[in-house]
Request: fold
Amino acid sequence: TFWEHFYNIVDSKQSLSGTEKFSYLISKLGGEAKALLKDIPVVGEMYDAAVSELKNHYGDQQLHLNKLLLQFNHIRPAKNWDEIRKMIPVMMSLARSCEIIDPKFFTSPATSLCLISTARSKLLKGAIIKYDSWMEQKRRTSLAAQVPTPRHLACPQVDNTAHFYDFVRFIQQM
Reply:
C-alpha cells in the first residue's frame, strides 16, 4: 500500500525531521488527498496529525478506489476536440490518485484495459481511429525488432501503467 511504501522510504528514517517527513508526504500526494491537508501547517509537530487525517479519511482503500473509478466512469463523453483536451487532465488525476492509494493499482492487465476502454468510450471516433493506427504501428515496430522466440517460450510482459498513460498522452497530443 501507499503507507507501507511511504513508511519504508520516509517515515521509518529517524534521520529525517517531522517537517522533512511532512514535506515528503505532501510532495507524494495529489488531488483530494493533498487538498485534505492544505490547512495543516507543514511543521514537524503537525506531521502525525496529517498522517492520522489521511488514514482516517482513506481508511478503506477499496471504497475510495471505487469512488475514484466511479468518477472516472461518470466523465461525460466529449463532443469536440476542445472537450477532449479538458478531459485528459481529469483522467490523469484520477488515475494518479488511484496509484497513490494503491501503488499496485495497475498490476492487473484488466485494470489498465478497463480504464482504457472507459476512456475510449468518452472520445470522438476520430481520436480512437488515430490511436488504434498508432498502436498498430507501434506493435508492428516492436514485432519487427524482436528476435524470433519459440512460441512455447514466449512470455509477453506488459507494463499496464505505461499502457494507460501512453494512451492518455497520445490523445493529449492530438
